[in-house]
Structures are given as structure tokens and as C-alpha cells.
Write a sequence for this structure.
């Protein structure tokens, strides 16, 4: 089910995946809608993607879609942030596809810098980074340690070069995003990491924006369960990388090539 008051094709579509966010949804979407209308110079659609919420989230999303220009609501019968992004992004006609967490932990002032290199063609994907030089982060020591450790594991295990896989503030050109979706297997929290890793494997250009980010103390993320899911995802991508390497034809050494020429 999908509903929206706005039909023109936008330059940017921002997806907000939600699950049981009745208490904060209206406040956050209204704040984002005001920012986009007053301070963001691109035609924008905001899509609330409801992941089978069991509270009043869907009803609130539908009311917002009915009352605010450029806001739409999408309902899915199954949970999963990755599933919500896949559903919204795969049907979008916007030039740039973006998403952000409903808590709006990332300062919205970074939004123009996130999409600018995508609209200009200078990058294929863009990510907010809490670990890049110049970022300002307010969160507890435990979550800071977990985040840094996870991204270090990505560098060691998958040779990833992006600095922050999990910040809920990302965007990409529609052609780039939609070309990757068919190969992303995860439907939950690891979706982001897998999308970025695949983009790197295909030599896509990833632009990083250092962000000002404030932790939401009411976050519903189960840190332990998410960490275990992420580790399983990393192990799966390592297997994928090894299988690709095994299938790749051997490249002859310069000496062997010279001998073959004679």
C-alpha cells in the first residue's frame, strides 16, 4: 500500500523506515518537511516506510501523507529496515534516493552536502560519517566503542575503505542504487554495509560527509542482536569475496607472459 499527495517527479526522495514509532513520527516528519520546504533547494519527496508496525505508526503516517505536500506513506507486511529501503528505492523515479533514521540524530544541515555530489555527478553514493575528520558526535562510550570496533572489523575483514557503514544518513544516484539492489541479500540492519561493500567492489565513487550526530537515548536497536547479525553478514561477504577470487582467471606474471611470447 502506498499513498502520497505529490505526483511530480522529485530530484530527491528521502525514505524514513519506521517500526512502532507512533510517539515520535509526526514530530520528526514535520520537522524534516519544514526543513526541506524552507532550506533545501531541491524538489523533494518524503516517504514514510512502515515495517509492519503494531502500534498507531501506520495511521499517523497516512495522516501525514494526507496533510503534507510531498509526503507519502508505504506499508510493508514484514519487518526489516533493508526490506523497507529496497521496497521504496526500487520503485522510485527520483534522481537521488536517500534515507535517514526517524530520530533525525544527524543534523539536517548536512543534507545539502550529502546530495550535492550526487546531483552533480561527482559521486555515485554519499554517506554521513561519524568517524571522519571533522565529525562531531554525542553518545555514550559504549556505543562509541562498538561503532569504532565494527568499522575496524570491516576494514580488516572486507578491506572496506568507507569509514562509517551504519550511520542512518545515506544517499545515492538512482541508477547506482537500483543497480545494486538485486545483489543485496540482507533485509535488516546489515543492508547498509552490504550495499556499500558491493558499491566498492564495482568501483563506485562513495563520498563521505562528516556529520554532527547526537545519539537518541530512546533507540530501539538491540545492540547485541544487531552485532551478531552484522558479524554473520561479514562472514557471508568474506565467502562471497573468496568465491569470486577463486572464479577469477589467473593473471600471468610479466616473466611468464614474456616466455609465452617467445
Amino acid at each position: 500500500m502506498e499513498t502520497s499527495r505529490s505526483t511530480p517527479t522529485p530530484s530527491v526522495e528521502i525514505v524514513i523506515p519506521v517500526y512502532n514509532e507512533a510517539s515520535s513520527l509526526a514530530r520528526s516528519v514535520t520537522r524534516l518537511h519544514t526543513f526541506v520546504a524552507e532550506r533545501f533547494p531541491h524538489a523533494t519527496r518524503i516517504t514514510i516506510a512502515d515495517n509492519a508496525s503494531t502500534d498507531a505508526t501506520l495511521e499517523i503516517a497516512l495522516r501525514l501523507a494526507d496533510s503534507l505536500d510531498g509526503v507519502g506513506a508505504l506499508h510493508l507486511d514484514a519487518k526489516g529496515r533493508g526490506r523497507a529501503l529496497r521496497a521504496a528505492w526500487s520503485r522510485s523515479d527520483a534522481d537521488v534516493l536517500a534515507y535517514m533514521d526517524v530520530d533525525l540524530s544527524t543534523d539536517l544541515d548536512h543534507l545539502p552536502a550529502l546530495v550535492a555530489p550526487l546531483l552533480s555527478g561527482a559521486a555515485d553514493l554519499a554517506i554521513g560519517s561519524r568517524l571522519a575528520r571533522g565529525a562531531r558526535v554525542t553518545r555514550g562510550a559504549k556505543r562509541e566503542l562498538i561503532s569504532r570496533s565494527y568499522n575496524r572489523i570491516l576494514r580488516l575483514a572486507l578491506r572496506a575503505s568507507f569509514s562509517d557503514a551504519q550511520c542512518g544518513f545515506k544517499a545515492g544516484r538512482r541508477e547506482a542504487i537500483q543497480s545494486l539492489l538485486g545483489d543485496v541479500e540482507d533485509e535488516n540492519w546489515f543492508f547498509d554495509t552490504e550495499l556499500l561493500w558491493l558499491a566498492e567492489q564495482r568501483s563506485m565513487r562513495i563520498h563521505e560527509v562528516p556529520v554532527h550526530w547526537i545519539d537518541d537515548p530512546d533507540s530501539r536497536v538491540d545492540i547485541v542482536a544487531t552485532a551478531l547479525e552484522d558479524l554473520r553478514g561479514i562472514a557471508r561477504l568474506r565467502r562471497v569475496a573468496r568465491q569470486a577470487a577463486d572464479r577469477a582467471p589467473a593473471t600471468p606474471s610479466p616473466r611468464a607472459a614474456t616466455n609465452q611470447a617467445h
Summary: Residues 223-247 form the longest helix (25 residues). DSSP finds nine helices and ten strands in the chain.
